[in-house]
Every structure is written in structure tokens, then in C-alpha cells.
Amino acid sequence: MLKTYKKGQLFSTDLFISASIFLVLIISIIAVLTLYSVRFDETIKNEDIVLRALQITDILLKSEGEPYDWENNPGDVNVFGLVTSDRMFSTSKVREFVKLNENDVRDKLNVENVNFYFSLKDMQGALYDVGSGEFSEAGSKPSLEAKTVVAIQRIGVYGGQNALMEFILWE
């Protein structure tokens, strides 16, 4: 007479089912955490670009720069500032800023990993002529393939009239 051990078989089947459910749950949790981690990283990256754009526009619109007369020797600039006083654009500083090499500007603005576009327009949207056939824009406009585009517009005074400064960071 041979005895069968049904309880042992039942226990091993329960263990197999429990282990399978546990593995499915662990894999699901890891997948969800990975997805949220990627979204969280993208959100932080986007917020960083927004913060940088706001800081840069504040500096350009509210600071004379460092040194304050950097337009006389643009190669020695530490911090760009485009005004002579709060929100009063300096013609010479705007002219020198738009003449600078795009990579040098990115380096000084500490935005090496993203592209930028700067423009200064009258309230009807026309670019200012800053002399020598140069217009008041620098950098490159965002492409249609850009993943992230942050545009900040601020109002100041240029040549005695209200002017719209637009600064865009994009990647």
C-alpha cells in the first residue's frame, strides 16, 4: 500500500502561485517607480530651464552688468546687463550684446546645454536697428523639433519708448 502526500503537493502549488503573484507585484512596482522617476527628472529639468530664463531676464533688465561698462570691452564681461538703470536699456550695451558670438553668450549666461534667442522690439513688434545694419536680436530661434521652449517677455524703455524684450531658452 502506497501512501500519497496530497498536502505536500498542495503546499508546493500554493508556494508557486504565491511566488508568481509576488514577482508580478514587484515587477509592477519597479515599472511604476521607473516611469515616475523619468517624469520627475523631466519636470525638474523643465523647471530648471524656466528658473534660468527668469534669472537671466532679471539680470539683463535690472542690472548694468559686471563690470558696469562692459560694452567698452565685451571680452572682459563677467555678467551681462543691458540697462543703465532699472528697465532703461542702454543702446550701446544692446548693440554690443547682439554682436557677440552665440557660444560666448551661452557660456557667460551659464546655459551651455540649451539654445537661446534674444530680441528687443518696439510695442508693434518691429526689431530695433542698433546701428551698422544690426538688429536687436541674438541667438537662434527655436526650431519646430525643440522639446522644451521657455519664452519670457519683459517691458522696458529703449530710446525713450516702451520696448518688449523677449528671451527664449530652448532645447
Give a written overview of the molecule.
Helix content is about 45%, strand content about 25%. The chain contains three helices and eight strands; from the N terminus they run αββααββββββ. It has helices spanning about 5-60, 90-100, 100-110; strands spanning about 85, 90, 115-120, 130, 135, 135-140, 150-160, 160-170. The longest helix has about 55 residues, at about 5-60. The relative contact order is 0.13. The model has no long low-confidence stretch (mean pLDDT about 85).
Strand and helix layout:
Elements: H1 6-62, E1 83-85, E2 88-89, H2 91-99, H3 102-109, E3 115-122, E4 129-131, E5 134-135, E6 137-139, E7 149-158, E8 161-170
Antiparallel strand pairs: 1-2, 3-6, 3-8, 4-5, 7-8
Could you list some keywords that capture this structure?
elongated; 43% helix; alpha+beta; two-stranded antiparallel sheet; 24% strand
Can you list the strand order of the major beta sheet? 6-3-8-7
Number of distinct beta strands:
8
Residue stretches low in confidence (pLDDT < 50, at least 5 long) are: none
Globally, the shape reads elongated
Helix proportion range? 40-55%
Structural class: alpha+beta
Strand content: 15-25%
- Please state the average pLDDT score: 86
Order of helices and strands: HEEHHEEEEEE
Report, as a whole number of angstroms, the end-to-end distance. 79 Å
Major sheet characteristics: 4 strands, antiparallel
Radius of gyration: 29 Å
Number of contiguous helices: 3
